[in-house]
Amino acid sequence: MSPREFQFVFGGFVTAWLILVIYAVSLGLRERRLRKELDRVRQMVEKR
Amino acid sequence: MREKITYVLAIAGIALVTWNLYKIFFVLPPEANVAAYQIVYFHVPAAITAFTGFFVALIASGLYLATGDLKFDAFAAGITEVAVAFASVNLATGMIWARYAWGIWWAWDARLTSMLTCWLMYAGYLILRRAVDEPTQRAKLSAFLSIFGCVNVAFVYKSIEWFRTQHPAPVLSVRQGGGMGPGMEAPIYWNYLAMLCIATVLVIVRMRQEGVSREIDSLRRMAHAY
Amino acid sequence: MAKAERGGAGFSLQGGLQPTPQPMPALNPQLPAEPHSPSFFRQALTIAAKDLRSELRTKEALNASLAFSVVIFLLFSFAFDPGNLDIDINEFSGGLLWLAFAFAGALSLNRSFARELQNDCLDALVASPAPPGALFLGKALANFALILAVEIISLGVFAVMYNVHIQPQLGWLIVVMLMTTWAITVIGTAFSALTVNLRMRELMLPILTYPFLIPPLMAAILLTTDLLGGKPISADNMIWVRVLVAFDVIFSLLAVVFIDIVLVG
Question: What is the CA B105 to chain-centroid distance, rounded?
Answer without folding.
Answer: 22
